[in-house]
Amino acid sequence: MKSKPPHRSLNCLDFFVNDSTTSKLCHLEAQACCFVVILSGYCQLTRGDSRERSNSCARVGCSSQSQLRYCNVKMRCVVAITIVIAFLQHGMGYTQERRYVEGSNMNLGEALQFLREYDREASGMCFRVTSSQWNYSTNITETNKRRMLEEQALSAKFHRLSWRRATSYTWTRLPDPIVRRQLHMLAIEGRAALPEEKFNELQQLISDMKEIYSRARTCPHSINSINYNYRQSGSCDLALEPDLTRIMSHSRDYEELLHVWRAWRDAVGPPIRSKYIRYIQLANHAARLNGFHDAGQQQREGYEDSDINTQLTELWTNLAPLYRELHAYVRHRLVERYGPERIRPDGPLPAHLLGNMWAQNWRSLADLVLPFPAKPTVDVSSEMLRQGYTPLRMFHLAEEFFTSLGLKPMPPEFWRHSMLEKPLDREVACRASAWDFCNHKDYRIKQCTTVSMDDLLTIHHEMAHIQYYLQYADQPLLFRDGANPGFHEAVGDAITLSVSNPRHLLGIGLLNNVTDDYESGINFLLLMALEKVAYLPFAYIVDQWRWGLFAGDWNIDEMNARWWELRLRHQGVIPPIPRTEKDFDPASKYHIPADMPYTRYFVSLVLQFQLHQALCEAAGHFGPLHTCNIYRSREAGRLLGDILSLGSSRPWPEVIRIMTRGRTDKLDAWPLLEYFKPLTMWLNVQNRDESMVGWSTTGEDTALFARWSQDGGYAVVPSVLITFLAVVFALS
Ligand SMILES: *[C@@H]1O[C@H](CO)[C@@H](O)[C@H](O)[C@H]1NC(C)=O
């Protein structure tokens, strides 16, 4: 275990007691010591045994036997008092069970009637909104935008009304579990509880922030060096997509990368910051009206598990060692490329050198880090071109993957209305997406497909969404969703794990022979790790930051520092240049200004390997998990169909229980670790000579963003300590 920073600075010996103290003060000192210990590791201590506690006490300077005994005897009392103080400090209601909003109507028949009406009206509403969104995304004009906004406003009104009707029932006590579940989903939904003017203000804020984000443009590096005043320059029109993304992934020029990294954050951070502060207030206000402590708690309710954050933390703790191995290996290669004066060989990584604007996907570093560059990597793009593949044929190939499992083919409307290629006669939003029009008929994909392996994988992923839609089509509208917010993505990615497998590509004639040796396997797994393992900490911290902010765990004037603290602690990256609270770097990620939850991506990363493992087991796969391919397995298809057809009609732990055939009902990091096991062993060997697997953090690192971290991150302790001592005096 890594040693913690010493707490000597808070040593109670120096603080309260001198040589000639009375015994009472001695006891007091012991208590104070214990208290410091509690504050420095509350959970660890209360779970630990008494020896551990004694050791901890000794570490903070209370080493005499009598003090220790006292410490142990008084532990419970002290813990209780601590909890009371923590409770008071965090404000009433923090540890309190939430109270749902509900009314007095207990009539089950009326509730059933309401839900029947809701299903019909909401389906119609959903069809109209989705159609207008489709029309806009596939034909971007002002008229289509206006129509879409009108439909969205109508829909928002309808949902506010539905919230009111749903919460007029005493729904937590209705005897029918399916009715209860549906009303629960309606009652906790969104911001419907806000008064109209605040509701509109919040909608407007979010749409303003999204607008700032999507309109942001920056100057190119070379022009910038000549003339920094870009407003006078005509060519400052680089957009995040595709320009900045391309530079981030392809450039290996330290200064150019730094320029792009900074320019993007300058363009979006400061203008979004003040709007975001107001957004937090309104989102929290809505959450409280819904009976939640804050908007983060409201988001977590989507996981139906008040303990979900503990589960997430545990998962990340289990996965972090693998991430650190990858981090150390990649750092070694980057030091070779950029030099030790730019990257400390045992330190965190500058955030702009990882091939991605947020350092969340390191795949484009492949040319720098591929272990065995002489071995061919699997890319069937040119073979697809040689065989005369078209986008349509790629979609048919993907469909055949699903039907080979015994799952459903795409319906006729899919082929008639989908947008499979970029049209030439109008502007469209090219981001690939899968659509459910809520009418049991229309399911579409929108994708500007090019003939390439990447796009072939994307098609499989998007088509998995459609398969999910088709499988749960017979559920009530409210249950036509993933079992939890991570499921939809996980299903698509689990399918892709099979499809990207070289043996599968061989099987469908896109690869002539598979080089089945050790080196190719490691190459394959490393590329996967650059995409999935590298993403884990980022996917984890986005909502850790947001939830901390919503909960008021820290102040508005340290938002940016807290962001970087999380980035450094979990991701091992630092900003390449100093950041202040004028910057607002979280806004550089779309999901922050766009009000989109992020935990689903972390959940999906873990869950997709769980699902892959379960499907492979059903398919009777033997051998390493990364070589499995479920193509043509009816058994795997049956299991997948069972899972998908439930939609969100059941709590997701039950769905995981079905998936794992009763082995667990939890998210589980093990299948991911198992998948990457050969790579982990290889990385262990590679990193043998590293002075540090993981990263050491110096004052210089933290000084880049956080002045408060030097002059007293524990500044809160003395005041709490004094409160505590006052309580002890009062009691004794
Ligand atoms: C695009 O939308 C406009 C309305 O803004 C409409 O007149 C036009 O026909 C649409 N184009 C296509 C190809 O659908």
Automatic annotation (TrEMBL):
A GO CC term attached to the entry: plasma membrane
InterPro entries registered for this protein in UniProt: Peptidase_M2 (IPR001548)
Binding site for Zn(2+) 2: H461, H465, E489
Intrachain S-S bonds: C219-C236, C430-C448, C616-C628
UniProt enzyme class: hydrolase
Pfam families from the UniProt entry: Peptidase_M2
Known glycosylation sites: N139
Recorded GO MF terms: carboxypeptidase activity; metal ion binding; metallopeptidase activity; peptidyl-dipeptidase activity
Active site positions: E462, H591
Binding site for Zn(2+) 1: H461, H465, E489
Cofactor note: Binds 1 zinc ion per subunit.
Cofactor list: Zn(2+)
Residues that, per the record, bind chloride: Y303, R600
Record GO biological process: proteolysis
Alphabetically ordered keywords of this record: Carboxypeptidase, Disulfide bond, Glycoprotein, Hydrolase, Membrane, Metal-binding, Metalloprotease, Protease, Signal, Transmembrane, Transmembrane helix, Zinc
Similarity comment: family membership: Belongs to the peptidase M2 family.
Annotated protein name in UniProt: Angiotensin-converting enzyme
Organism expressing this protein natively: Cryptotermes secundus
Organism classification: Eukaryota, Metazoa, Ecdysozoa, Arthropoda, Hexapoda
